[in-house]
Structure formats: C-alpha cells, structure tokens
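S1.2 Input.
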Amino acid sequence: MGKKKHVAHERSVKQTELAERRFKVARLHVLGNFTHEQIAGVVGVSPQTVATDLAAIRNMWIEEAKADIAALRAREYGEVRQMEAEASLMYMETKKAAWLRLRLKIKERAAKLMGLDLPSTLRVEAELAGHGPDVLVEKLRKLSLEQLSRLIELASSAPERLLEAPDVD
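S1.3 Output.
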C-alpha cells in the first residue's frame, strides 16, 4: 500500500473506532442513565473523553434535528403555498371575499413557518424577561436536546406559558 493510501486507511479505521465508541457512550448515557465515570469504566476511556464524546454526540443530534425540522418545514411550506394558490384560484373564479381572507391567513402561516415574525417575538419575550435577545440565544444554546424538545412542545401547545418556563443556567 502507498503512503497516502495507508494514511487514508488509518484515518478511516480511527473514524470507525471513534464512531463505535461514541455509539456505546450514547447508548449507555441514554438507555442506562450512567454517570461519566461509570461509562468511562465500561468503555475503557477517561471521564473527560466521555464528556467530549457526549458533547459531540449532542451536537450531532442537534444538527440531525435541525435537518429534520428543515425538511418538515419545507414540506409544510410547500403545502401552504399550494393552499394559497388554490385559494387565489377560487377567488378568481368566484370573486368571494372569503377566499381573500383565507389567502391572508395562509400567507400569515407561511410567514410564521419562514420565521419572519421571530425577531420581533424574541425581542418582546427578551424585554418581558428582562434580558436582551443575545442572552436568550445563549441560554437556548445551553439546553439539552430533551430540554429543547420540551420547549418546542410548550411553544406549540401553549405559547403563553413560555414566560412561565423555568430559567435554565
């Protein structure tokens, strides 16, 4: 084997070993609810390595969740755009104002899906909570995937309760 192929092969082996170890670490963390020290003992690495692996795993999960959300948002946006086109056609055929009102509601939904109302929402919530938007964004970055999921559920089901949500530091 040439030197470049050997280096590429070694890198591939190390990446595979890293992926396998992180899979074990994640499994023990999620399914077994073990401490870093316990996981380190089972896997044969230091607790610091476990912490590093869990941080990398959490980042990977967040990126996967973002991709899933982006795909869902794209599909939903496509459906909303189709509904808007149909409402527009119905208005053109019937000239009934109800179709224009429906189209306006659909456009509002599209704006929410695209996040066009997010900056003002964050600013108002930040002011109500006594923080600037940068503080809120930093707090959101510190949340675990489970905490983010609960926050998303809360925002979807009862947005008025977001201000009651416990502070996360």
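S1.4 Remarks. Helices lie at 3-32, 36-43, 47-94, 97-114, 118-129, 133-142, 145-157.
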